[in-house]
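User: Okay, second chain of the day. Same drill as before: sequence in, structure tokens out.
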Amino acid sequence: MATPTVSPDLNELRGFCVAADLGSLGRAAVRLHVSQPSLSKRLASLEAKAGARLLERSARGVALTPAGRRLYRHARPLLEAADQVAEVMVGIKETGTV
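Assistant: Same drill. Structure tokens below.
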């Protein structure tokens, strides 16, 4: 198996998944506590790394493209695992456990 040449940023993936979940860049930006232009830049960077459009944008919001659905299936579990790692790190910090 070839080594990936691009490595997405977790913030890019989170922005992508939240936008897909909510169907709106504006609502996703509010949820993530970032500006909509900042979220758009994250998504543009992710799409450039993927080499494909991941979200179809319209006046009614956003929807996953076929490439976006493929990425979403892998990104969502990765983000859930990253959240669990963050929780473990908080627990370690609070207890001082090494």
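Strands lie at 55-58, 61-64.

User: Thanks, on to the next one.
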